[in-house]
Amino acid sequence: MDDTSTEPRCPRLRGLRVCDLSGQLAGAGSTRVLAAFGAEVIRVEDPVRQGRWDVTRGIAPFTDERRGIELGGAFNQFNVGKRGVTVNLRDERGKELLRRLIAVSDVVTENFAAGVMERLGFTYDTMREIRPDIVYVSNCGFGHDSPYSGFRTWGPIVQAVSGLSFLSGIAGMPPAGMGLSYMDHQGANFMTVALMAALIHRQRTGEGQWVDMACVDAGLSLTGPGLLDYTVNGRRARTDTVVDSNHSSAPAMAPHNVYPAAGEDAWVSIACRDDRDWRAMADVLDAQWPREDCYATTAGRLGAQDELDGRISAWTATLDRFDAAARLQAAGVPAAAVLTAEDRIEHDRGTLDWGLFPTVTHPAIGSVRVDGLPLHLDEDDWCIERAAPTLGQDNDYVFRDLLGLTEDELAAHREDGVI
Amino acid sequence: MLGGALAGIRVVEIASDHAASAGKLLAELGAEVVLVEPPGGHPGRRYPPFAEDVPGDDRSLWWWHYQCGKRSIVLDLEDAGGRDGFRELVRHSDLVLEGEPPGRLGGLGIDADRCRAADGRLVWVSVTGYGRETARRDEQFTDLTLQAGGGQMWMTGYDDHRLPPVRWGGDQGFHIGGVWAVIGALVALHGRVRDGAGTLVDVSMHAAANVTTEQGNHHWLVARQEVGRLTCRHAAPVGRPTQETMAVSADGIWVNTGVPGRLPRDYAQLLGWLAELGLADGFAESVWLDIGARREATDYGAVGLDPEVTECLSAARSAMTLIATTLSAREFFEGAQRRGIACGPLYSPDEAMDSVHSRARGFPVRLYYEEVDREVEHPGAPFVLHGAPWSAPRRAPKLGEYQHLAPSARLDPAPPRIGLAHRTSEHVRHEEQKCP
């Protein structure tokens, strides 16, 4: 039996079929979770542009010098465990295929800009006519009923306009924001939450629904209690507060920072949650100055934070980052080295013991590790063992076996560029 | 009848800092969340800032934010009577959410194994720093140390590496683990509704952070490349410039000028916009925009390899920066977006909540607090479930407010149920595939 015809191993969401028009990390990152739990996720791609609406198709990283739409490491990462078909939605026959696929699916997902599905002739109402209890999840930056609905976003844009980027930085410096597309991950995660909630609702009532997911709103919901400092106390973040995210004023903790360790660009994070942590740290520092009265309380330490940071840095700078963290952890103080990708993936017991990076075998890329899931279930746990689909890999299975097209019809569709 | 998706489902949450956001989300999805606090209340009640800057057990804005929608009772789990109360509460609940250190509840005789032995349908979600069984399970953690170990910090900061890497504000390390805890809870509840079976869900916040790196992981996994420390942009391998995406608008707000467009029409739009603003003549790189408008789509993967693509994308970036510094942040944002160019100003959270988008979408929700004798706006729903609306949450619970709560009483009305589960196509297929 070849790899592509193997049923998903995890029975948790077995029976759930997803017609998946989503892509990029913000959409594909959600449906990959369903696939890991055994759902049949059928990713629908455009044969005309060879799936390159999804910018991760065919871009770096690559395992070797070969290039091409089947060789991009990012696409494989975000689409493990899915099936793949091609449908040309510019063609009426392509639309008919999509209608037939929706008719045998439980869920339709997409993360096009608002309006794209409508222009293709697929709204929640038209989908509901095809399949009355369909769960339809649209995921875009601003949702479908905002004055900004047509606006285009990537993760870093969502982070900017939702207030998240503003919150990260060192005092006196411009915002550092986030050095990666956080809201593509969280957009995908919230999409999974919404989708599962809608499925539970359907289990209990028999009713489907449309979920209008807006990544900007998800971002805004993550900015925290500081927002209430505005709505309750009238304090505006831009003019009335200082962003200094390596420190912590709420909850109040000091010391709380990232300190230089021995070696180039080596750092260790340390947080004293309370006076007990500080007394334990004072024992580790094994010097007189930490026992001075001015440092005895959180308020005192917060007031002398810069001086405190300087003295702690002088200590950490003499130590290997892992050694500094281990000494503090042994005393019960939260501390952790700042880890590189190599540290995290190859040497860290927290990820290795978890089995966080399973291996899949891709027909073009070869054997490669990908991200697993950060939760384990005691029964019917997730399983990631199939690579991302190659373009149109499952056309025969889906169109012939599932939808009942004849070989002649399939051949004609291929000939005419419908699939 | 419309009700939240989780209406009628009762969650017992043992109060913690790091799993509070998970319980909040479950409450907002309609679950009845009963928060168990220790005598005197959870320390979060005393986290600043406070309403009107006056400290008090019921005035912490951290508490108001993360505990809204929940009910709270005080139970001393160190005391036999408190533990009996906890068992009784769990016996009448569907799901337990806890962030206790591995082993603590076992030592008290109220751990997942024992509670699940008494009720096979119980879903138990454990949210720990490093998972229940890894070698690091007993390590202490905060949001800061999670982001240090998860890759977020290594990838975020400034070009000047004498400055330390930067933690993301707003406790994102906790939020990442929190949303995965909810995903686990919902996957488990889905199984419970379908088959009546409970599940133990083991969430590692460290693992969650470690799969939230965009390209950080697969550049290493696929090509053994490290991704560098960047400012406000997509992850990329080391050696690429970083702060270039940022510019200051004419009204002094940092803006993210985004990823330059790759289609001919994006370049044409930029040329037209420069001309409209009277900036075209002074812009030396117009020639590359012109080329970009006439060639086929530029491919990001060719940056640094194909000189023409590199120049075109660089010119687009320069044009965006020039326009950004000429206009107000909002003019730049709306002007670019109306031309199909993705970019955005770095609004503060309060500016974002007051934006025309947020107001038009009805994002904020209003809750009455007697402490300030008025309704207070909270951030609202991250998505709109049209068929199972976001629960209008209740205010964060006052200390001891629900102490009278009888464990067997359900305060929220149960939703209409059709047997154990409605037979959907999903169920039919599930059963068919179980017995081929």
TrEMBL record, chain B:
It comes from the Bacteria. SUPFAM superfamilies: CoA-transferase family III (CaiB/BaiF) (SSF89796). It holds the Pfam family CoA_transf_3. Residues 423-436 have a biased composition (Basic and acidic residues). One of its GO terms (molecular function) is catalytic activity. Residues 407-436 are annotated as: Disordered. PANTHER family: ALPHA-METHYLACYL-COA RACEMASE, SUCCINYL-COA--D-CITRAMALATE COA-TRANSFERASE. This is Carnitine dehydratase. It comes from Pseudonocardia halophobica. The lineage of its organism: Bacteria, Bacillati, Actinomycetota, Actinomycetes, Pseudonocardiales.
